[in-house]
Amino acid sequence: MAMNLPVSKNENVFSILEQSLSNQRNNLQTMEMMVGEMKSIKEDVSKQHEEIQALAKQIQDENRLLPSEIDDLYQAVVLKSINTVRATSTLEGKEFKAEVGRTRRFIWNKLNRKFGTSKYIHLPRKHFDEALEFVRTFSILDHI
Q: Would the pTM count as exceeding 0.70?
């Protein structure tokens, strides 16, 4: 059953629909602008995030070893010197300890020379993993 509305009411409906359509267009334009701004903000945040990560890496690489890293490197040298002397000699007691000390100093000397430092505690953090691997794979035969 169709309703026949008077002409004036039809014109009023059209006016309302046109106004509604105009409002929706304005809303769409506003939303498009907001999406554009949000994309721009996202790009800016992504760029800043990358810059922060690069700076953090640079700071980490330039800084000296952390106390825990110094301890890890020290323990690796101690263990390597003890195991090296055990594998290459039959010394015991004070002689064994003296030889371990000489071997330890030899390892430190080679490590410091390899990385251009006067003391291992001055080693830049960026070389920590490489230094640890150097100690773990160290062989006196490679340096004689």
A: no
